[in-house]
Amino acid sequence: MTLGGGGGGGGEMEEIVIVGGGLSGLATALALHRKGIASLVLERSESLRASGAAITIRTNGWHALDYLGIASALRQTAVSIEGFASINLDWSMQQTRSPISRGETRCIRRSDLIEALARDLPPGSIRFGSYVKFIKSDPFSSCPILHLNDGSTIKAKALVGCDGVNSVVLDYLGMRPTNFSGSSAFRGFTNYPEGHGFENLFFLATRGKVLLGRVPVDDTLVYWFITRHWTPEDLKISNNQDLMKSSSLESIKDFPEDVTKMIEKCDRSSLSCMRFRYRAPWDLMVESYRKGTTTVAGDALHAMSPFIGQGGSASLEDAIVLTEFLAQKLREVGPDRPHQELMGKYEEALEGYVKHRRMRLVRLSAQSYLMTKLAETSSVLVKTLCIAVMIIFFRDYTAHTEYDCRRLRL
Ligand SMILES: Cc1cc2nc3c(=O)[nH]c(=O)nc-3n(C[C@H](O)[C@H](O)[C@H](O)COP(=O)(O)OP(=O)(O)OC[C@H]3O[C@@H](n4cnc5c(N)ncnc54)[C@H](O)[C@@H]3O)c2cc1C
After folding, report:
1. Long-range contacts of 232-240 (CB under 8 A, 24+ apart)
2. Strand ranges (DSSP E) for 247-377?
3. Closest ligand 1 atom, CA of 20?
4. Could you point out which of 12, 198, 240, 340 has its C-alpha 20 to 30 Å from the C-alpha of 59?
C-alpha cells in the first residue's frame, strides 16, 4: 500500500513489517499468516539463505513447528536422535551414553527448515534485496519509518526486528548490541552415499578446549561442528572454504580416525565458520525490548552460544508467543479500526509478548552463558562457580526442552 502525507512524507505504509527473512522472521510471518494476519518481510539477501548446514531441534522447537503446521513434513527429512554419547579424549577413550530422556530431537537441514517456513506464505510476503539501513520515528504518528538501501521508505504500524546479531532494529530500540564470546564454530555436512553406519546418537568428543559434535541427519548425511577458541585469523578463514577445512582438520588432529576422515570427506560448499555472539542474561532481565509498536525477536533479541542448542527453537517460540498476543489484541479492536485504538492494541500486544518471554529467555541465556563459560575458562575457581550455579538452578539439565508454546492460546 502506498500512502502520502501522514507526517512521514511520501512513501509506503504497511501494517506489520518484519525486518529479516531468516528463521525468526519467516516463522513470525508464517505464524501470523496462520492466524489470518498479513505482514511484510524485508530481507536484504536476494533469495532465501540458510547458512550453517543444519540445526538441532529439541522438543520445544517441535511443538512450535507443529503449531506452524510444518513439523510433519520436516520429520520426514531427518531421523530421530535416540541418545547422547560423549567422550573426553584427555581422560579416556571410554564413551558415556545416555538416552534422550524426554521428547523429540532431530537434526534438520537449515535449507529444509527455511524453505518449509517460506513455502506457505502468500506470494509477495517476502521482499528480497531490501536492506534496511536505518529507522527513524515519525514525529507525528510515532510510527517507525524504515529507510531502505534504494532510498525508499516504509512506514510501519508495527515493526518486528528479526534481523539477527547485527540488528538495525536494536539500534532503533536503544538496546545494547550483542556481545562477542571467545569461541567460534566450524560447521558442515559429510555425505556417505553408501550409508554412514553411525548410530542415531548425538556424539560429542572433547580434547582440551576443542569440542567436536556429530549428528546424523538421515542414513547418508551427517552434520558436524567443531568449537574452539576464536582467533583473529578466523575472520580470514571464514571467507575461504579451503581454509575452513584445513583449520577444522588442524583443530581435531589428535581425534580418532573416523572423526578426521569425516572432516576430510566433507562437502566444502556446506562449510561455515563464525564467532559466537550472545546477550547476557542480566541484559535480558533489565532491558526494554519494546518501543511503541516496535520489538525484536530471534537472535536480535537473545543471541546465545549453541552449547544448549536453543537459539533457533527459542526464536520459533518467540514467533508463536508474539502472534498469539497480536491475534488476541487485534480481535478486541475489530475490523473497523480507528488508528489510535489500533496503535494502542499493537502496543498492548507487544508488551504482553515482552513480559511473557522475559523469564523464559533469561533462563535459557543463563544456562547457555554458564555452559560457554565452563567451556572457555581455564580458571578452576570460575569452573567450580559455574558448576555450583548450574547445580542450583539447572540441576535438570534438559528441563528447558519441556516448554510448550502451544499452551499459550489466548
Ligand atoms: C554454530 C551455531 C550452531 C547453532 N546450532 C543451533 C542448534 O543446533 N539449535 C538451535 O536451536 N539453534 C542453534 N543455533 C542458533 C540459531 O542458528 C539462531 O538462533 C537462529 O538461526 C537465529 O535466527 P534469526 O532469524 O534470528 O537470525 P538470522 O538467521 O541471522 O537471520 C537474520 C536475517 O535478517 C537479515 N537481515 C539482517 N539485517 C538486515 C537488514 N538491515 N535489512 C534486511 N534484512 C536484514 C539477514 O540477511 C538474515 O536473513 C546455532 C548458532 C550457531 C552460531
Report:
1. 234/184, 234/273, 234/275, 237/273, 238/272, 238/273, 238/274
2. 272-278, 290-291, 294-296
3. 34
4. 198
pLDDT tens-place string over residues 38-49: 999 999 999 999
The answer to whether the CB of 219 falls within 8 A of the CB of 196 is yes
Find the 384 Cα to ligand 1 centroid distance in Å. Answer: 32
By C-alpha distance, which of 322, 326, 316 is closest to 404? 316
- Residue whose Cα lies nearest atom 9 of ligand 1: it is 309
Three cell numbers, residue 389 = 550455579
The residue whose grid cell reads 500512502 is 3
C-alpha 22 – ligand 1 centre gap (Å): 6
In the chain, domain spans: 12-49+110-179+279-407
Query: Other C-beta atoms within 10 Å of 157: how many?
Result: 18
178 in ligand 1 pocket by Cβ < 6 Å?
no
Q: Give the three cell numbers for residue 408.
A: 499459550
Helix (H, G, I), strand (E, B) or coil at 365: helix
Match domain 12-49+110-179+279-407 to its CATH number in 3.30.43.10, 3.30.470.20, 1.20.1510.10, 3.50.50.60.
3.50.50.60
Nearest CA to ligand 1 atom 41: 132
The answer to whether 317 and 60 have CB atoms below 8 angstroms apart is yes
What's the full length of the chain, in residues?
410
pLDDT 10s digits, 157-215: 999 999 999 999 999 999 999 999 999 999 999 999 999 999 999 999 999 889 999 99
Phi, psi of 364 (to 5 degrees): -60, -45
β-strand pairing of 290-291 with 144-148: unpaired
CA of 1 to the centre of ligand 1 (A): 29
Q: Which residues of the chain have pLDDT under 50?
A: 1-9
C-alpha cell recorded at residue 74: 520436516
